[in-house]
Amino acid sequence: MKIIIVDDEASVRNSISAILKEKYPDSDILAIVGSVKEGYAAILRYHPDLLFLDVELPDGTGFDLLNKLPSIDFRVIFITAHQEYALDAIKVSALDFVLKPFDTDEICRAVDKANTVINNEEEQLKLRALQENLESRKVLKRIVLHTAENLYLVAVSDIIRAEADSNYTRFILSDGKKIMVSRTIKEFDALLSGSGMIRVHQSHLVNIAWVDRFVKRDGGYLLMKDNSKIPVSQNLRKQVIQAINDSLYL
User: pTM to 2 decimals?
Assistant: First the structure.
């Protein structure tokens, strides 16, 4: 595997390089650089299979570097030191990352995962989702959903609701499609926080834009615009009503 490392901290570059040389002796580290300009030149020269890319660089961001490239036919592992909005965008776009300070196991996990990605079209799809999410800043626009057979790029506005099914989550979309993903609803609750999706029950997330009304009888439930009825937990009732009220002013 041909690898390029782009990070503005020499200690980080050296640590990643040392781990790769120890754990992946057959890998070929082609360049270790610290800026957008140097990274761009190295990628065009060496055509890597895998890029370790810092989010914040002295002459721009890692995203600026990717946007400069005519095409992206390699896998990307982002490096970041901050629990920031950019990290949320990376997560919902199903791209991989390591969070500083990292350890050997974290680097190996990311590399092993990157090795399983053999379809460049999938990587392009994820990066497209990332770009849209970054352009929209505080509101996540797209989410990448993995199933056993497909990779879906879904607009958050097209999600009516999501429901838990054991350790799986089923997404119900506006066109009637249902997508089952092998991740828990708790994970998606965290990923989609602030995007208009709200937790209304232990087993349900709903898109506030698709709520028709809150019905007080029968313990309280939401009637959605697709006529589905979603129960509301008593301990979440106040937050749900507040979210509905707040949505009237958006």
Answer: 0.69
